[in-house]
Amino acid sequence: MIPTLRTERLVLRPYARGDFDAYASFMGSKRAVHMGGPIDRDKAWTWFTNDIASWPLYGFGTLAMEIDGRSVVAKVWSSIARPASVARPSPSK
User: Fold this and answer.
1) Which residues touch 80 (CB under 8 Å, ≥6 apart)?
2) The whole model's pTM is what?
């Protein structure tokens, strides 16, 4: 299950199909340079769907952000993520 977290002004929620245009626009811009961008729309679609798929596959992932009722889905990443290159922590003894 993908969480939705709410405060008085902030909502962190799962991505929806309608978020993709803003996501692709942001990832195609110079603002995405520190996130592997800019990238084209096709690659953005791959990344978008991977962001969504990480929740059922791994139990963590990226959430879309809304502030004061306005979507800020353009990769203001609210990620609870562990890249594949980072080793899983060992259980405490």
Assistant:
1) 60, 61, 63
2) 0.73
